[in-house]
Design goal:
Length: 100
């Protein structure tokens, strides 16, 4: 399966996701949060750094649960449209895209 290149909006959304998770983690260790979420510390590190811009939905759900974040709140924060850009109906900004 060929994976399409990420759009600039997807890359930016991944960066917002990483920043949100870092803020929510606060002073907790990356290792502890990763182990509690049953993901590898390297996976969490890549998501927080924005290197994995479109992590799998179950991964985000597990991390959000450990951090006490609702998925609705996560989606609302990371999917804020850019100023001056009208949303499109292309399906690229849907929650399902987060799972790819």
């Amino acid at each position: 399966m060929v994976r399409l290149p990420l759009t600039p909006a997807e890359v930016e959304r991944g960066q917002r996701l990483g920043a949100l998770l870092r803020r929510a983690r606060g002073e907790r260790s990356m290792l502890r949060v990763a182990l509690d979420a049953c993901v590898s510390p390297e996976t969490l590190r890549k998501i927080e750094s924005g290197r994995v811009a479109t992590p799998a939905f179950p991964t985000i759900a597990a991390i959000a649960d450990v951090l006490g974040l609702s998925l609705d709140a996560v989606w609302a924060e990371i999917s804020e449209p850019e100023r001056g850009v009208e949303p499109t109906d292309s399906g690229r900004n849907t929650p399902e895209r987060l799972a790819s």
